[in-house]
Amino acid sequence: MSATIFRHEFLTRLRSVAVWSAAVAALMFLFFSIFPGFAKDAALINELWSKFPPELRAAFGIDKLNFATVLGFYAFLLIFVEICLAIQAGNYGFGLVSVEENELTADFLLTKPVSRLQVLNSKLLAALSAMGLTTLLTWAVSLLSVAVWNDGHEYDAHVLLLVMASLPLFQVFFLAVGLAVSLIVKRVRSVTPYSLGLGFGAYVLSAFSGMLGDVKLEYITPFKHWDPAYIVNTGAWNGPLAALNVGVSVGALALAYALYLRRDIPAAS
What we know:
- Helices cover 78% and strands 0% of the residues.
- The chain is an all-alpha fold.
- It contains 14 helices and no strands.
- The protein has helices at residues 3-12, 14-32, 35-40, 42-50, 54-59, 70-102, 106-110, 116-149, 157-184, 191-212, 215-218, 222-225, 228-234, 239-261.
- It is elongated, with a radius of gyration of 20 Å.
- α6 packs antiparallel against α13, α8 packs antiparallel against α9 (157-184) and α9 packs parallel to α14.
């Protein structure tokens, strides 16, 4: 690994980390502030939800959650937080090597006395560290929100920690798949459409899986691999889907390394 490349890549992402972290923190804390009202009128809220079409409730996972509980409400909130985290990780994955190739500056980096393996290791570690900062803040705001807005309701701290521990693995999936796809396609002209497509596409698949009750779709989308509703209701990760998620992430990273080490890097003429 090159410390110089790592430092440059990490510092370059700090502004992005600040924006995403602030957005996630504000969403989580403000959304959780309405929990006491939900819990107080739980019967009325549940009756209101029951009037929604079953397909709509299944799409959002509402049919599996009890909004009168701290963890049930937290799991529902995480649907929106996870979409933000997925797009952030996708941005880092798709842009890890494609940005320099688009700007025709990649050849400048490769003329330095560092190997391609060192370059990719440094960039990947910097992206993981940047995502780690967002994850740490998400964990801190989660604990703070639950502590401030639990309204005297008890909850299982072990289950809360299990849900929180799934978030970094959830993000690594989007980083790894984004990186692999950026190296498979000939050129990524703009990172945002790819990351939005991957993040929202995976969520839509998760929603269709709930609406149709199609188990096969659960294998495709990480929103089901680390489904907060499943963890809250069972008190454990879904072992087969979690293993599948980790396997796909490792496989995507291995593929990305293989492609990058043999890649024909475009140079400025």
